[in-house]
Design a protein that fits this description.
Elements lengths: L13 E6 H11 L12 H16 L4 E5 L7 H5 L17 H11 L3 E3 L6 H14 L3 E5 L13 E5 L4 E3 L1 H8 L6 H8 L14 H11 L2 H7 L6 H9 L1 H11 L21 H11 L2 H6 L36 E2 L3 H14 L1 E8 L9 E9 L2 E6 L6 H6 L9 H12 L5 E4 L2 H9 L11 E3 H9 L7 H9 L6 H5 L13 H29 L2 H21 L1 E3 L1 H26 L8 H11 L17 H9 L3 H26 L6 E2 L2 E3 L9 E3 L11 H8 L1 E2 L4 E8 L2 H9 L3 H8 L4 H10 L8 H15 L4 H8 L3 H14 L1 H17 L1 E3 L5 E3 L8 H37 L5 E6 L2 E7 L3 H13 L10 E6 L2 H4 L1
Parallel strand pairs: 1-2, 1-4, 2-3, 4-5, 7-10, 8-11, 11-12
Antiparallel strand pairs: 5-6, 8-9, 9-10, 13-14, 13-17, 15-16, 18-22, 18-23, 19-20, 21-22
Helix pairs in contact: 1-2, 1-19, 2-4, 7-8, 7-11, 8-9, 14-16, 17-22, 18-21, 19-21, 22-35, 23-26, 25-26, 28-35, 30-31, 30-33, 32-33, 33-34, 34-35, 35-36
Length: 934
């Protein structure tokens, strides 16, 4: 480390305190299992050493130390025995690495600091205060919120992941108070991670507001009896002592004894011999090379596999090589060498660079291959001149001719003995299947996006950059960095090859490393069957559906569009009459002014921009009060949306060559496992309205074919009867009864014994509403009754079916305890905000926890059917193609001569994909159009 000096030449006294725990756990969770030559696991040691040495090369200070926790028990446990009681023990495979990590720190020439009975945070606080008092400045390398109370003039933090400083403005943004009040906020809000109790019902925002009003914790507690809000007053008065205990737990002890004198923290160069010996003992070859202790040898080839591997091989060396530099492949001989290396490796990362986000219209610009971590290349295919080359009249860059490159790659990409790993494989598979890109049927494949999704749907996003940061501790090069942004953006084909290589080859490298990190976790997580039998197989199924598309009658679509246009004109005229003057019906601002300023209707609320809200909730409430203008605008909006989205939108996305539209299915965007349809979204066309049916009439079959709709009947209610073990509901489904009439009879008990239409409607509303965690208020508003009547209906429902209430309470408790719920088929669905102190957000999370197993279970049922049907149809010699998936419905295009056989097969497969305590039922319909079939 270089010692900084001031402009006058005097040493700049700058102490850097590294939070060792943050580095350790980030390294451990980011890297796959690694063992050194004698079998000792060292993944955390390697990651820690790599991060520390990189940090030392970039940051300058006169003093530095890494601070560690000496043990789990500290003086705080004497204050509050349950402090950190919920913290799990460190993983068994990490514990032996702690001593090696301290050895790595010392070998790097950095002082290690720890002290029994005190936390690392206390030591950081004490050293920061002592050094600052001596006139020095301090940087704390950590993003731990507990340390933010130490920020002040001369003491700042550095986020080690974002590499951004944390000063008073950042603390104020996070907590709503200056650093001096952070401990007070934590004392009130508590901390479930450390089991700090806090004051029930007080969150961070409320705590900040109260503390700023009353000047601190003691000022607030003194004023608590006079606070106006009853619940807040009662909570503060009853828990005043608990708040004081909480502050003693969160307040860092700046008077902690200093186990090492300040001069021991002076920055010094590492002992080269000692550091080299340590790195060689651990087998960290790449670090040896990077630090100048010798060259890292080329990665040895792994013997060719005879069959596709199901788990990643154990790493040959305990090291994670750097991300780059990578090779640019510009001639066929070099490409053949990479292909041979890929065959030997048996598992490769692969990625494509194209000129379009639409895979059916995209042309390959280049592709990248990774054969091992840190070992990757980019193969440019269609790069052109850059602006600089044009100015110099330079020749185009040398590259492999696209046809020759794809001909060479085709045997590799179709080789069953080589596993191709992608991130978002469906896109790349569709691109490579296009004739212009080689017409390659890539197999077998793994998809890191779907591996992550199978384990952690709802917990975080599953894009490559996010996964890389989460699991590898690495931020990949952004697309904007190489192409620019806005008007200055250039096509990827014009990016200079050195920059294109760094970006594209890194994507393949990151993908392969993610596979090595995530694939082994599938079995440990209990998600291997879900991934292998459902998510992985869905990639090819959806690829084929997207490529097939569905035919649209352009003439009928134009006719619908013309009719909608005329209706909109008529509706606008009526709206103007109801408003008393003309205005832009599509302008929420103008509508709000008419409703609330001119018509003086109650309930108007202005947003931040100063305009009244006129969203669907506001208009429906007004319409319910008999405001004709509100109802007329709602009707106008529905037609306008249908026209713009499904008439104009479909026309724009219609393939002129085939007369078909090709929706795109998003596989990892929902928390429950459901598939989403985009561009165009064919899942939101209204089913029960006349306008929705007209639009579906425009979707037609090819000549000699019909469209077949196969729709699961009441799948979520069947899952409810199965999960909640409700005998009467199971009996009703088994006997094919009308479930809503049966529910109405049992809940409302009509004196005549006959269920009328209104009773059935109410039963249907509660049957479906209960799955979504509907409240008494929500049911009342939908049925047009008082909240008290709504509560009475829900109480009667749970009184008749107590198993349902028990089931739902069990789901909420599972979510609170584990952070997720499971479907009947084992998928984990993570529930955000389930333990938040914000009542509104927590209530929303509880509703999500109730609904997720049903919606997720329904998604699982139809996915299981989708992965079985293509093979079943092929094995039966049938030519039907699956075209669409819309919630619980599948749409097929079927030759007229095969309708009966296809119908029987589809019904048998769909009803047999899951064994529940109630039968699955599928309704089949056929017709020339989607409207006729459904």
């Amino acid at each position: 480390m270089t010692v900084a000096t001031t402009t006058e030449g005097a040493p700049d006294r700058h102490l850097i305190l590294v939070d060792g725990s943050g580095y350790i756990f980030r390294a451990f969770h980011a890297l796959p299992p690694m063992t050194r030559p004698d079998g000792v696991q060292v993944n955390a040691v390697f990651g820690f050493t790599q991060m520390l040495t990189q940090f030392l090369q970039k940051h300058i200070g006169s003093h530095i130390a890494v601070v560690f926790d000496a043990g789990r028990v500290t003086f705080r446990n004497a204050i509050y025995p349950d402090y950190k009681a919920h913290r799990p023990e460190a993983p068994e495979e990490l514990i032996p690495q702690f001593a090696l990590i301290r050895e790595a720190t010392a070998a790097s020439g950095v002082c290690c600091i720890e002290l029994d009975n005190y936390e690392a945070d206390d030591l950081i606080a004490a050293y920061a205060k002592a050094f600052r008092d001596e006139g020095g400045r301090v940087t704390i390398v950590s993003s731990d919120k507990d340390l933010m109370q130490l920020v002040r003039d001369g003491v700042e933090m550095l986020d080690p992941i974002k590499q951004k400083p944390i000063r008073e403005p950042e603390v104020l943004e996070k907590f709503g108070v200056p650093p001096s009040m952070v401990a007070d906020v934590q004392a009130l809000a508590g901390d479930p991670t450390d089991n700090v109790p806090g004051v029930p019902g007080i969150g961070i925002k409320t705590a900040a507001q109260l503390l700023l009003e009353h000047g601190g914790l003691e000022g607030l507690l003194a004023a608590a009896p006079s606070i106006k809000q009853p619940k807040r007053r009662e909570a503060l008065v009853a828990n005043a002592e608990l708040a004081r205990i909480s502050k003693r737990l969160v307040l860092l002890d700046e008077n902690t004894p200093l186990p090492e004198p300040m001069e021991a923290l002076a920055a010094r160069a590492p002992d080269a011999e000692k550091l080299e010996r340590f790195l060689r003992t651990q087998g960290f070859r790449s670090l040896l090379a990077r630090l100048g202790f010798g060259e890292a040898p080329a990665h040895p080839a792994v013997a060719a596999r005879q069959s596709m591997p199901l788990e990643p091989a154990v790493p040959l060396e305990a090291e994670a090589p750097p991300f780059g530099p990578y090779e640019t492949v510009t001639d066929l001989d070099a490409l053949h060498a990479w292909i041979a290396e890929a065959r030997a490796a048996g598992v490769i990362g692969f990625d494509t660079e194209t000129d379009s986000l639409d895979p059916l219209r995209a042309t390959l610009v280049g592709l990248s291959i990774a054969t091992a971590p840190g070992r990757a290349c980019y193969v440019p295919l269609r790069h052109g001149h850059t602006q600089a080359q044009d100015m110099l009249s330079a020749p185009p860059p040398t590259q492999v001719p696209p046809e020759a490159a794809m001909a060479a790659l085709k045997p590799l990409l179709e080789d069953p003995a080589v596993l191709k790993v992608f991130q978002h494989a469906k896109y790349d598979l569709e691109v490579l299947a296009q004739p212009v890109n080689g017409g390659i049927a890539v197999a077998p494949v793994d998809d890191t996006m779907m591996i992550s999704y199978a384990m952690e749907a709802g917990r975080h996003g599953h894009g490559m950059d996010e996964l890389s940061q989460l699991h590898l501790g690495h931020t990949p090069i952004a697309y904007d960095e190489v192409t620019g942004t806005g008007r200055g953006r250039i096509p990827f084909a014009e990016v200079p090859l050195d920059k294109a290589t760094a970006y594209a080859a890194e994507d393949a490298d990151v993908t392969l490393r993610l596979w090595q990190a995530l694939r082994p976790r599938l079995r440990q997580d209990g998600s291997l069957v879900l991934y292998e039998q459902v998510e992985r197989r869905m990639i090819g199924v959806l690829r084929d559906m997207e490529m097939a598309g569905i035919k649209v009658d352009g003439v009928e679509l134009a006719r619908i569009g013309e009719d909608f246009s005329q209706r909109l004109v008529t509706m606008e005229a009526r709206i103007h009459t109801l408003a008393g003057r003309p205005f832009n019906v599509g302008s929420p601002k103008q509508l709000g002014e008419i409703l609330f300023d001119e018509m003086k209707l109650p309930g108007g609320k202005k947003g931040k921009a100063g305009a009244y809200s006129t969203d669907v909730t506001v208009l429906e409430e007004l319409a319910g009060q008999g405001v004709d203008l509100a109802r007329a605008v709602l009707d106008w909006r529905q037609i306008a949306k249908l026209k713009s989205t499904y008439v104009d939108g479909l026309s724009a996305q219609l393939d002129s060559r085939s007369g078909r539209v090709h929706t795109s299915y998003s596989m990892a965007n929902t928390t429950t496992g459901r598939i989403a349809s985009t561009e165009p979204n064919l899942q939101n066309i209204p089913v029960r309205t006349e306008e929705g049916q007209r639009i579906r009439r425009a979707f037609v079959a090819e000549p000699g074919h019909v469209l077949m709709s196969a729709d699961y009947s009441q799948i979520e209610l069947r899952l409810l009867a199965d999960l909640a073990d409700v005998p009467t509901l199971r009996e009703a489904f088994a006997q094919g009864e009308d479930i809503h009439s049966r529910t109405a009879a049992e809940v409302f008990k009509p004196p005549s014994g006959t269920v009328d239409k209104e009773a059935r409607r109410r039963a249907k509303m509660i049957n479906f509403g209960i799955i979504y965690g509907m409240s008494a208020f929500g049911l009342a508003s939908r049925l047009g009754i008082t909240p008290g009547e709504g509560r009475g209906i829900i109480d009667a429902y749970f009184g008749q079916y107590p198993g349902i209430r028990d089931c739902m309470e069990k789901m909420k408790q599972e979510a609170r305890t584990h952070g997720f719920v499971r479907t009947s088929f084992g998928r984990k669905i993570w529930i955000a905000d389930i333990n938040t102190k914000d009542p509104a957000r927590r209530a929303g999370a509880e509703r999500a926890a109730i609904n997720a197993p049903f919606q997720g279970g329904a998604a699982e049922v139809i996915k299981r059917a989708m992965v079985r049907l293509p093979k079943a149809l092929r094995d039966a010699g049938l030519s039907a193609r699956m075209l669409l998936q819309v919630h619980d419905e599948l749409v097929f295009e079927v030759p007229e001569a095969e309708v009966d056989a296809t119908s029987a097969l589809v019904k048998r497969v769909m009803e047999g994909v899951a064994e529940l305590r109630v039968p699955l039922a599928v309704e089949i319909g056929t017709g020339r159009s989607w409207s006729e079939a459904h």
